[in-house]
Amino acid sequence: MSHVMRQAVQELQENGFATLTSIFSISEIAAILSTVEAADTTSVNFRRSQDVFAIRNLLGEIPALREQLLTPTMRQLLAALFPDATPHLTKAIYFDKPAGSNWLVAWHQDVMIAVNRRLNLPGYGPWTTKQGEVAVLPPRQILESIITVRLHLDDCDASNGALKVVPGSHRHGVIANNDLLAHTSRRVTCPVLAGGAMLMQPLTLHASNRSTSARPRRVIHLEFSTAELPVELEWRERAKV
Q1: Distance between the two ends of the chain, CA-based, in angstroms?
Q2: pTM for the predicted model, two decimal places
Q3: Looking at residue 1, what is its pLDDT?
């Protein structure tokens, strides 16, 4: 593990987020974008509007991206993040925030996980079902097992939707919606260059502003975990790494 990755892992543990540069080369980014642009967009998992283009279940929709994303550098990063066991992928989403997008994301934590079915399980709930897909709020230890890796395909700063985060907010567990704003006074903005990555704990409070830039903000959001769910409950997008 490189010194830079070791430092990023430490920052992630302490602050709930960290950033890294040069995870992907310019040519690797170009290949990823080419694969995305060639995809059939007729699936219900593709959402396109004036303000956002998103692809849910990204690797299920575009399997060719798997090898393009799981490069040796990416695997080295995952080994640094999960030193005791190989993680599995639990979610993959592509976000394109076009130039001048009015789409903003309010302060929130990523507390719902996508699963295969609804079950009566202690510690799990509330449950939601949207377009036939089930999600649930799991126990805190499941959320704390997840690490998000946001791969940036464009230079990203405050003008085109860089994430704002609250350092240390991941230590407070699930925060009630009415209390979210009370935690945001120490917020910071996290610019990331193209080819870089932002690492984040799902319980870290985060948000993003509308874009005021002529530049897009394309990001691939990947979530990984080593946690196993109870028998008969499965991560809906679970995939080997």
Answers
A1: 18
A2: 0.95
A3: 58
**Count of CB atoms situated within 10 Å of the CB of 74:** 19
Q: Which positions ≥6 away from 68 have C-beta within 8 Å?
A: 28, 31, 32, 35
Residues with Cβ < 8 Å from 145, sequence gap 6 or more?
A: 225, 226, 227
Q: Which two tokens stand for residue 116?
A: 């295969």
Paired residues of 8 in beta bridges: none
Amino acid, res. 102: N
Domain residue spans of the chain: 3-240
Kindly report the CA angle at 179 between 92 and 81, in degrees rounded to 5? 35
Q: What is the mean pLDDT of residues 51-69?
A: 92
Q: Can you tell me the distance from the alpha carbon of 183 to that of 205, in angstroms, rounded to the nearest whole number?
A: 8
Q: Given CATH 2.70.150.10, say whether it is the number of domain 3-240.
A: no
CA 116 and chain centroid, separation: 19
